[in-house]
Design brief:
- The chain has about 180 residues and is α/β, with parallel strands linked by helices.
- It has helices at about 20-35, 60-65, 90-95, 150-165; strands at about 10-15, 40-45, 70-75, 80, 105, 115-120, 135-140, 175-180.
- It has one domain: Rossmann fold, CATH 3.40.50.300.
- The protein contains four helices and eight strands; from the N terminus they run E-H-E-H-E-E-H-E-E-E-H-E.
- The protein has a six-stranded parallel β-sheet with strand order 2-5-1-6-7-8, covered by helices on one side. The chain has a two-stranded antiparallel ribbon with strand order 3-4.
- Strand 3 and strand 4 form a beta hairpin.
- Helix 1 packs across helix 4.
- The longest helix is centred in the C-terminal third of the chain and has 17 residues, at about 150-165.
- The protein starts with 9 loop residues before the first strand and ends with a strand.
- Residues about 1-5 have low confidence and may be disordered.
Amino acid sequence: MSHDRKTRPFALAIVGASGTGKTTLIERLVPEMTGHGLKVGTVKHDAHEFEIDRPGKDSYRHKAAGASTAVITCDKKLALVTDLDAPAPIERVIGWFFTDCDIVVVEGYHLSSLPKIWVRRKGIPDDHIQATSILATLTYDIDGAESGVASRVVEELADLILQAMVSGSESQVAPGRVFRG
């Protein structure tokens, strides 16, 4: 890969309105990318306040007592909750936590500088999305519930992402390509 893993892994954002299938696409892309031998990280942007801990648990009580940062850890995983004085740009978050990854797939952050796959679904307005650096658009012409993403589309998107990783620039890889889900 052409990116410098010591500074930052290759990253791209999956953007679109709520209910368009962003999470489903990520669930399908991650195993496709790991199948290519890549170490994949993910980030989910939440436009609302969230709580990953539960009241009454010791780790929750640490933060509730006033700790600005709390970590819970065991032999196989770790979770960190820290207070932010201002929103952290996704590029900074990736630099803080994903230096051991080859690629980071981000859900959301449509205003970031990251290359993006825009997921659109018929009947779901997305006028509020102000995405730039569009690598590809995935469109669904169906209304209603999740239908999933066709395997061939996931494979083609993964190939496009790999091309962008190798070239080091989404602009060198047929930007704006449209896929039909």
